Amino acid sequence: MASNKLYIFGSGGTGSRVLKSLIMLLASGVECGVDTIVPIVIDRDMSNHDLTRTKTLIENYITVNNIAPKEDTQKGYKNRFFNTRIELLNNELCLQLKDNTQKFNEFIGKNTMSSENKALVDILFSKETLELDMTEGFQGNPNIGSVVLNQFDDSDIFKAFANDFKDGDRIFIVSSIFGGTGASGFPLLRKVLQSPNQKDAEGQPLPNWGLVNKAPIGAISVLPYFNVGAATDNSLVNSDTFIDKSKAALSYYKTEDKKLDTLYYIADTNTTTYEHHKGGDEQKNNAHFVELAAAMSILDFVNPQLQQKNIHRKDDKIESTTYKEFGISANVSEIGFANLEDESQKMLINPLSRFLLFRNYMQFVFEKERKYQPYAHRRFNEDFRKENSIKKLESLQSSFFTWLREMENQNRRFSPFNLSTNNAFDFVKGDISLITKPIWSDNIRYKNWARVDNELNRQISKTDKALGNESRFLELFYRATESLINFKS
Amino acid sequence: METIYRWLSSLFGSNLAEHLSGWSEVTGDYTEANLFFIIGMSSLIISIAACVTYYYILNHPRWNRGFKWLIFLVIVLIVNFLLAFGICYSDLLAGNISSDISAISVAECLGFGLTNIIVSIIAFVLCSLIIKWGSRNCKFSPFKF
User: Fold this and answer.
1) Residue A126 — very low, low, confident or very high, per pLDDT cuts 50/70/90?
2) A366 and A304, same structural domain?
3) Structural domain includes residue A213
4) How confident is the model at residue A442 (pLDDT cuts 50, 70, 90)?
5) What's A253's domain CATH number?
6) Closest CA to A153 of A224, A81, A204, A101
7) Which of A51, A161, A435, B116 is 20 to 30 Å from A136 at the Cα level?
8) Are residues A277 and A212 in the same domain?
């Protein structure tokens, strides 16, 4: 049986944030055309908060995924929460560059250069660029990123990637076009992945490289969707240059035609202005709908029903690149489910609504009701929430809520939910009729959270008794929320 | 049914027990309606009906607390007390008690009402234990097993 993994290379801060959105979607149970996702983040700024948040999220996801029953009609498992496996290479998320030089002039060895070469370097790079502290990334300078990142194929993770790669696996690259790391990393990475006979630093050929070379490959290039305020330090990040840098990069990307199977573009002109941070722990941008849409492009790329649209190959050679963009039905400042096209509605409404209902139940009801409800009797007692996997689940649910809240607080708000309600069934905004009609007697008898408890008590007998408590918990909540929320477009 | 009540006859006295057993001064035998049976069956039916209502008709996730089950029990006890006391007391008022049975007072009627409360508690608890398993939302109310 052919392998079915997707390796996602996320470049820079945007790469981390798009991965975060993807994790949220997978946690909520969106359909994903591959069994396993292998995320690899390329970022020299190891302390950037977006990266550390994504790392924690992935670790939590993996723990919960290990106990989640996977949808299986033969076994009678319906659960789709945390259904897709996430695997880390060498247990690491980040592709660590071997070189840890702090300043760019040290990296290029300016001090050891001849005076002629030094003069040339001074012409090519400004004094600020040469003195740039690269431990906080490339601060929007793809020109130095492209020099430094040239070494990433020598990292342990990259070797592990080659080792792990099998026939049938696919590759996706996520990067922004207007920053430093992403803009420079994307074309470099694509080039390395498709160069034959790649060798490591010891001159040994990387294993499975032929398979990597011919693997289906997609990418998303995220165009400007936010600005940063004026710098208060010596940062070189300047959002006035975002558009010009994007134009320059796009003209270069023309040369990528027929080198990628599918190339996705996304941007937003209604930008939010973030506080200026050049990188490090303070680089913590709120989640944005653009990142969610970018994560959806990954799912689009691996959607088995779209393979004929996305991939045009003959004898393993790309005949043409498919270009795709994401759009909403109207230029509104507040995006709800109604503003999404059918395909997006179908992908998002049920999983996000079900997972939010699950989160809200855990937040508002579980502790109070578990003593009384038959579904919890002798299964989910007072120590249940102290189980590691349940703690991780709740931590991820809390991040999920924060993620929704952050998307709601952007200039272009993604606000399909009423996040301030404590009630069970008024959390979906708009006129989309989400909630399935229960049998009339249930509808009369059970209101608000009692209806959810009634459904949990109904579904517990349908779950497999052989499952461990934590696994059964996920199966139970998936069944109950599926029964209560079932949007059909 | 009568046997159960007779175990507790110290609460309402042997005279009332004779009347409830259907003693007739005319025939000199127990040929009148056996009120132990009528009151006992009625109380049992009321207890079962209340149990079925609690566990299957109401069957509500917010009513599966012990004290809500207790509300049902108290209602059953009130109804069954009134039933037992009411029948005895109305016979007493109407002079339907055989003259060869020594005088019966209101205290004995109250005693029989109390007896019916005890019988109803047993009936309601037993019925709850038997039928609770089929209830979706209340199967562990009030017993946590």
Assistant:
1) confident
2) no
3) yes
4) confident
5) 3.40.50
6) A204
7) A161
8) yes
B75 in any annotated domain: yes
> Both A273 and A389 in a single domain?
no
Residues of the domain holding A177:
5-327
Residue A489 lies in a domain: no
Considering A327, A346, A381, which residue would you say is the last residue of a domain? A327
DSSP B97: S
Q: Do B144 and A453 touch (CB under 8 A)?
A: no
- pLDDT at position A60, please? 97
Q: CB atoms < 10 A from the CB of A104, how many?
A: 23
Query: Is the same domain home to A69 and A192?
Result: yes
pLDDT at A382 over 60: yes
A332 lies in a domain?
Answer: no
Counting residues of chain A whose pLDDT is more than 70, the rounded percentage is 84
The larger pLDDT score, comparing residue A290 to residue A433, is at: A290
Instruction: Quote the pLDDT of residue B1.
Output: 81
Interface membership of A379 toward B (CB under 8 Å) = no
- Are residues A317 and A349 part of one domain? no
Least Cα separation, residue A488 to chain B (angstroms)? 28
Q: Which range among A190-199, A285-294, A351-360 shows the weakest confidence by mean pLDDT?
A: A190-199
Band (pLDDT 50/70/90 cuts) for residue A399 is very high
Within a domain: A284 = yes
Give per-residue pLDDT as tens, A297-322.
999 999 999 999 999 999 889 999 99
Give chain B as a DSSP string: -HHHHHHTGGGT-HHHHHHHHT-BTTTTBS-S--HHHHHHHHHHHHHHHHHHIIIIII--TTS-SHHHHHHHHHHHHHHHHHHHHHHHHHHHHHT-S-TTSPP--HHHHHHHHHHHHHHHHHHHHHHHHHHGGG-TTTTTSS---
Whether residue A272 is found in the same domain as residue A361: no
Compute CA distances A156 → A34, A89, A92, A160, A172, whole Å: 25, 9, 10, 6, 19
Quote the number of domains for chain B: 1
Does A358 lie in the same domain as A304? no
Verify whether the Cβ–Cβ distance B137 to A445 is below 8 Å. no
In the listed set A307, A327, A347, which residue is the last one of a domain according to the structure?
A327
- With an 8 Å Cβ cutoff, are A372 and B139 in contact? no
- Considering its fold, how many domains does chain A have in total? 2
The ipTM of this complex is: 0.91
Residue A384 sits at the vertex; the CA angle it makes with A379 and A388, to the nearest 5 degrees, is 135
* Residue A361 binned pLDDT confidence (cut-offs 50, 70, 90): very high
A240 and A367 within one domain: no
- Is the CB of A432 inside 8 Å of chain B's CB atoms? no
**Two tokens at A470?**
């934590």
Indicate yes or no: CB of B61 within 8 angstroms of CB of A445: no
